[in-house]
Amino acid sequence: MPDTLTVIDNRTTKQYELEISSGSIRASDLRQIKLSEDDFGLMSYDPAFSNTASCTSAITYLDGEKGILRYRGYPIEQLAERSTFLEVAYLLLYGELPTKVQLTSWTHNIMHHTMLHENAKKFMEGFHYDAHPMGMFVSTIGALSTFYRDAKNLQDRETRMLQAFRLIAKTPTVASYAYRNSLGLPYVYPDNTLSYIGNFLNMMYRMAEPKYQPDPILERALDVLFILHADHEQNCSTNAMRNIGSSNADPYVSCAGAAAALYGPLHGGANESVLRMLNEIESINKVPDYVKRVKKGEMRLMGFGHRVYKNYDPRAKIIKETAHQVFETTGKNPLIDIALELERIALEDDYFVDRKLYPNVDFYSGIIYEAMEFPTDIFTVLFAIPRTAGWIAQWLEMIEDEDTRIARPRQIYTGAEERDFVPLEER
Ligand code: ACO
User: Fold this and answer.
1) What span, in angstroms and rounded, lies between the C-alpha atoms of 41 and 36?
2) In whole angstroms, how large is the CA radius of gyration of the chain?
């Protein structure tokens, strides 16, 4: 059987053979289907890219029907149990797990780029005390473009990798400065003798003690959360990263654009919205009423549903287990009971069952962050730090892909026909 698709255009009765490769046709092959020589040719209309592959990628595999997520072939469950975030970031970028020597050198490279230029620090001081940390994060990551002018040399792999180190290294510093700024606390410089996660906690929480010692349980829990958030193939923010990067913009401004996309409540901003929702529900006995209002279309159940997962999000499963481990150290966050009840009721209800709406990665993460005393405003930043590794891996892959051209979708024009300008006095 040939790997082709036969299309008959009933407008003209002409027949076309389109090649099928990797379960797809090339959208540009549709252009040969024309009414006449000067016809532009057929396009496909897909406003949310729900059935359009925009690239080939060897980084993350996801099967939403079966609830499978793998980075470079490794199941997310195994990585969450046995790996660390920095090791996973290496895997995403280089395609293989590092050897001992490679991991040592990678860790050294990352941990020696954690410092922010003092002017970048001053730039952050300029924000108002109640600035949203995601706004600060997006702006500061974009501003780093002005500090690293060499980043524009995209043709050189060594230069590209240097920006990768810098971005992965500096996002925790930017995030913690955003937090300290909001509280009027002095910034804490990185301590590169700690782990990547330990140092982040140090920059967030260190007060007067000479050396900050992170709680190992909380450090590991955050490591697991970072692993789970590191990449998720062509989601809204990754698509933004590739889209901006396709114009040969430098990785800092591309990353700022990706972070801006993540900020939205339908994407990474959902973790913050979930917490606000659970606080609004207040107690378990108000859950049924809340679910009724969701079903009436008054609001969405935040942290539920996913464009791709039509099954339980495997990340949500791991986060739920992690929550209980964290509570053993921090004490139980009472919001977990409301969340569990919401999940129980929703998963039994036809509205959610018919639409295949399950908890996603954001449903339980906020409860852990709150138990670890992260303020709600910073939750999406906690998503952006590890996702930076994914954005960069995808960006590097895009730059090295021979098929890459500037992203430039088509439109279906629905506006006015040509008409003559009307002078103001005649309108
Ligand atoms: N609560 C209630 N109903 C929902 C929800 C929800 N959370 N999500 C989808 N639905 C309903 C829609 O109303 C729609 O119903 P209808 O067919 O009767 O109109 C149906 O399910 C399909 O919804 P779409 O909006 O078409 O689904 P889409 O794939 O476009 O949206 C999205 C996916 C944006 C994630 C959506 O499920 C949502 O808004 N969820 C809440 C926000 C959230 O948690 N976002 C984080 C996603 S994970 C991440 O980005 C990291």
Assistant:
1) 9
2) 24
Query: Residue 164 belongs to what domain range?
Result: 60-265
The first and second tokens of residue 78, run together, are 């195994």
Residue 376 belongs to a domain: no
Q: Give, using CA atoms, the residue closest to atom 30 of ligand 1.
A: 307
- Centre of ligand 1 from the C-alpha of residue 306, in Å: 6
CB neighbours of residue 397 within 10 Å? 19
Is the same domain home to 37 and 75? no
Query: Which residue has a Cα nearest atom 41 of ligand 1?
Result: 302
From the CB of 353, is ligand 1 less than 6 Å away?
A: no
**In a shared domain, residues 145 and 199:** yes
Query: What burial letters (b/e) apply to 134-169, b meaning 16+ CB within 10 Å?
Result: bbbbbbbbbbbbebbeebeebeeeeebebbbbbbbb
- Nearest-CA residue for ligand 1 atom 14 is 355
Tens digits of pLDDT across the chain (427 residues): 789 999 999 999 999 999 999 999 999 999 999 999 999 999 999 999 999 999 999 999 999 999 999 999 999 999 999 999 999 999 999 999 999 999 999 999 999 999 999 999 999 999 998 999 999 999 999 999 999 999 999 999 999 999 999 999 999 999 999 999 988 999 999 999 999 999 999 999 999 999 999 999 999 999 999 999 999 999 999 999 999 999 999 999 999 999 999 999 999 999 999 999 999 999 999 999 999 999 999 999 999 999 999 888 999 999 999 999 999 999 999 999 999 999 999 999 999 999 999 999 999 999 999 999 999 999 999 999 999 999 999 999 999 999 999 999 999 999 999 999 999 999 9
CATH code of the domain containing 183: 1.10.580.10
* Four-CA torsion 198, 203, 207, 208, nearest 10 degrees: 80
Residue 294 lies in a domain: no
What is the crossing angle of helices 133-147 and 157-183, to 10°?
140
Choose one of 230, 265, 300: the last residue of a domain: 265
pTM score over 0.90: yes
**What backbone torsions phi and psi does residue 95 show, to the nearest 5 degrees?**
90, -15
Helical H segments across 206-348, by residue range: 216-229, 236-245, 251-263, 270-281, 287-295, 314-330, 335-348
**How many independent structural domains does the chain possess?**
2
Query: Is the domain of 40 the same as that of 64?
Result: no
Pocket test for ligand 1, best of 306, 351, 352 (most atoms within 8 A of CB): 306
Say yes or no: 92 and 147 in one domain.
Answer: yes
Q: Is the CB of 62 under 6 A from ligand 1?
A: no
